[in-house]
Amino acid sequence: MDATLSFIQLDALSITYLLIVGFVGGMVSGFIGSGGAFVLTPAMMSLGVPGIVAVASNMCHKFPKALVGAIKRARFGHVDVKLGLIMGASAEAGVLVGAHIQEATKRGFGDAGSNLYVSAVFVIVLATVGGYVLRDALRMRRSGSHHEEEEKAGRLARFVQSVNIPGTMVYFESIKAQVSFLVTIPLGFATGMLAATIAVGGFIGVPSMIYVLGAPSMMASATELVIAFVMGLGGTIKFAWGGYVDIRLAIIILGGSLFGIHLGAIGTTYIKPYMIKLVMGVIMITVLVSRAFVIPVYLAELDFIGPLSSMTVRLLKNVSFGIMVLALVLGAAIVLRALAVGMRESRGEQA
Amino acid sequence: MLAVRGIDTDGVNEPHALRVEPLSSRESAPVGRQCRRVLVLLDLTARGAAVLQYATGIAVKVRSAMMAVHVIDGQPWFESDGPGGQFLPEERLFFTAHATARKLDLFLARNNAPWAESTVLYGKTNEALAVLIKRWKPDLIVVDAKAARHWAVAGALASVQGSTQVLALERAQRGRNAVIGNRGLRRGKQPDVAVSESAELAVRDPAKSRQVIRTLLLGAATGVLYWLMFVNEKAILDLSAKGHWYFILPLAIAFVFSSVHGAFTAEFWDMLGVKPNRKR
After folding, report:
1. Cross-strand pairs, B117
2. Residue B176 shares a structural domain with residue B231
3. Domain boundary among B204, B230, B251
4. Does the complex come out with an ipTM higher than 0.85?
5. Is residue B97 part of a domain?
6. Are the Cβ atoms of A241 and B243 closer than 8 angstroms?
7. In whole angstroms, what is the distance from residue B122 CA to residue B110 CA?
8. End position of a domain, from candidates B166, B183, B204
9. CA B235/CA B249 separation, integer angstroms
10. pLDDT tens across the length of chain A (351 residues)
11. Strand ranges (E), B95-160
12. Candidate from B200, B243, B257 with C-beta closest to A242
């Protein structure tokens, strides 16, 4: 592959742009364990980076970022390494299968079909999981259960913990119970599939750890960073093997996101646990709205509905991207606000 | 041993920023580094006794010498409760100081630290204290947090240099049997006054300047890495575009960046005071 063809020229403006997007994405990642990635790939592509290079470079920035974030959160005692590695290994398999499905869709139905598939996954996953997470966060907020002890495992989690399949039981620190790895494998697999499809596996990984396994949201969001590291490392090797990684792009985004991820991780030490679910839910629902805007475009391309004018197409795409950015900015604003309020309160207590 | 020191201001440096070096716990007293001298600033109240007890604990543990310093808060014109009568204010202060010195020795004996040196400072106490610290070269200074904020003490502590640590103790919650002043001592009661390390002062980082240097160095290292990458941009891109085993290259670059840059960003926020909540 000719390097000069697939790797773009970088100027000061595009570097600054990538740094800022990376910073905001990193902040959200440090807080809820993932996210940010779904806006980075389009952001790079808007600079003229070919899709596959954008995805590869995004992967390559993700694993060091997740590593740094995981180490930081581990210092706060949030990380369950064992759970992260077991889920990560199965997620890796999910990524490979997910990528395969992507390629098959693209071969069978072309770009529009692939895009429609991605958007449909976006909408279905975000609507169900995001809605559930958001509802739960609001319920916790209303009921005033502000302490981690009160964040009890739900009915499903209690059932999962009660299932005993001999020879497959593993004790997990975060859950404080034994769970069969036969349960964690599909969860990790789904996380990987989602990561390969919409770049944010955490939208399944984190809620599944919370609601299916019964892990506290604080631990779930931190453990997701371990999963993201394992997935990112595997994905990077795969793409770098093909020579698709633009390490400059990866490192620039990494530069911004490392500043962000520390802020996000520190932010988690000041907030009540329901805030993680709230931020996650808000981002998921906003992204959902964003994707909903482009679905007509793909439907029209596949001739399911009447053709749209190019004006409308451009408008819908821009609105969609704008809302996606808004989702991230919204998440970042909540994190920053939580951090500022928390630090002020903690200083007030000390004085 | 009894010593009374008055105004002696030779070679005192201009005070600069207050350097406060708290210890995370008594066990972490500077044992690793040689701690040979402990200086404790106290008054003759139950509170002073608590501070003394804390310092004695450290000094006994690390087998260091200890000097107890009592600062008479007053200028020569201050009407203090010394022998009155037909003396000038300066003379009166002098007598007060000597009387206080005897009281201090008694105080030390009563608080199981008769072996400590005792010193009473009066007059321009900030300068006298600064000179004392400079000459005696304590490795650790234990002081009540409130006293540490007093202008005279703060001024002297500001001149602390080198490896000397300052440990500011905060007043702990008052118990039901708490006593005010030394009333309880006079009646022979066990005073219910405890000390804890100053939370407020502990927030100021112990090695702020060291941290700034570390952050700058890491930042510079990160900058160099970026520079190296963009200088060798063409070669790196050509190699990584080859794929196959060259996948090691971007991977290695990412790892190096994450360690150096990650350390830098962590220090960066820490330096700016964005720290995690300690309570969790």
Report:
1. B67
2. no
3. B204
4. no
5. yes
6. yes
7. 23
8. B204
9. 11
10. 444 445 777 778 888 888 888 888 888 888 887 766 767 777 777 777 777 788 888 888 888 888 888 888 888 888 888 899 999 999 999 988 888 888 888 788 877 777 788 778 878 888 888 888 888 888 888 876 555 445 667 778 888 888 888 878 888 888 888 888 888 899 999 998 888 877 778 888 888 888 888 888 888 888 988 998 998 888 888 888 878 888 888 888 888 888 888 888 888 888 887 888 888 888 888 888 887 888 888 888 878 887 778 888 888 888 888 888 888 888 889 888 888 888 888 777 655
11. 117-121, 140-144
12. B243
